[in-house]
Amino acid sequence: MTNVVVLIKQVPDTWSERKLREDDYTLDRDAADPVLDEINERAVEEALLIKEKHGGEVTVLCAGPDRATDAIRKALSMGADKAIHVNDESLHGSDAIQTAYVLAAALGTVEGTEIVITGNEATDGRVGSIPAMISYYLGIPQLTHLRKLDIEGDKATGERETDEGVFTLEASLPAIVSVNEKINEPRFPSFKGIMAAKKKPIETLSLADLGVEADVAGVANAATTVTGATPKPPRAAGEKVADEGDGGNAVAKYLIGQKII
């Protein structure tokens, strides 16, 4: 039996307009439709495939405000067994270092975890360092940016594709892995799964429950600070070049003016 914990995150829909708050320059999460990050659906799917092959239990872990329960319920409707929701106002504006620390503390409350699965990066931040940071905090191996994952016995084997080729990685369990978009195609929740998700347990934990001091998290205590932001200018109309025999020269002149060539 293999017990898996999947880290999930509720993010603003990538098709919605995103903007920063004017008071602290954190992402305004009320300005866009919240959804379960698509890469997390693939992480959940991979955990379910492991469960179907080896047995065990799938737990989803999410840090976020009250509305994050919608993302949690979707993961449960896909087939996860239970969830942990770290919900604390002090988390607002936490950077990657703080977030990884809190998630590592939450993972410490789950007994018998053999593998932790995450997406390679969240679409609202694109930091991509959380899995490595959790690996450091927990002192467990990491296999990141995997396109394929296999669990056999007490060992995890994965494939990572890079510009230099495809590498095979191995680690002993327990371990943390991050997956990319090539790992699988996530299943759609069935009606039965959606109804069952309403009855599945969600344990809500505060920072105090985790033994984490409030001043460890939050925008005021973050190691990184955004001091200003300017909205991108509206896209200008492109320049048209009429080819009257000298179109090539006109295009070359334009590219030189833009310092492209």
UniProtKB/TrEMBL annotation:
Gene3D superfamilies: HUPs. Belongs to the ETF beta-subunit/FixA family. It comes from the Bacteria. It comes from Hoyosella subflava (strain DSM 45089 / JCM 17490 / NBRC 109087 / DQS3-9A1). The keyword Mitochondrion does not apply. Keywords: Electron transport, Transport. This is Electron transfer flavoprotein subunit beta. GO terms for molecular function: electron transfer activity. PANTHER family: ELECTRON TRANSFER FLAVOPROTEIN BETA-SUBUNIT, ELECTRON TRANSFER FLAVOPROTEIN SUBUNIT BETA. Heterodimer of an alpha and a beta subunit. Its cofactor is AMP; FAD. Residues 24-214 form the Electron transfer flavoprotein alpha/beta-subunit N-terminal domain. The keyword Ribonucleoprotein does not apply. One of its GO terms (cellular component) is cytosol. The electron transfer flavoprotein serves as a specific electron acceptor for other dehydrogenases. It transfers the electrons to the main respiratory chain via ETF-ubiquinone oxidoreductase (ETF dehydrogenase). Coiled coil: none annotated.
